[in-house]
Amino acid sequence: MKKPDWEAIESAxxxxxxxxxxxxxxxxxxxxxxxxxxxxENWSRDLSEKIKNKSDELVRTKEVxxxxxxxxxxxxxxxxxxxxxxxxxxxxxxxxxxxxARNIANALFEELGTECVDIEAFKKxxxxxxxxxxxxxxxxxxxxxxxxxxxxxxKSMKALSETLKNLITLERQAYNIxxxxxxNSVGQLSDLMDKLSQEG
Length: 200
What we know:
This protein is mainly alpha-helical. The protein is 79% helix and 0% strand. It has helices spanning 6-15, 20-27, 31-41, 48-117, 119-128, 139-147, 150-174, 185-199. It is rod-shaped, with a radius of gyration of 46 Å. The N and C termini lie far apart (118 Å).
């Protein structure tokens, strides 16, 4: 017959988590034998309260950790959402500003186009409005004629092309469009206008 492991039995008895009958059954002896030994060696079932207290402490610790993790997650989510909203508002404002600037640039292109369609009419207008001084000069009319001249029109075209190029780049960034065309046709147009203005 296997000899009882009295050290293990004593530990289980002192812990107080199992009944004496359960301890006896696990170790193949009678509960009376355990009671007799406990009385003889003065065992006490005094650890159950300590174990319960320790268990309660562990539960509280886990609850606190779970709560802290949850609160941190909530704080992080709120922080992310708040910052994302700020950035989204800024990007929407940028889109609006870029759209306004493009409308202005397009209006200036239209104006320049109208001027180029019938440049002779603008020259005649300048001649009709001419008002020379006693020396035969009309400085205001000279400025007007210079503005409608080919070099000035080419310079305006170049400036507007450069503006449009920059606006398109900004617009693509604001709308997060990454597949920017590689041919850079707007940039090429700007370079061409630059060359033409220098020749003029």
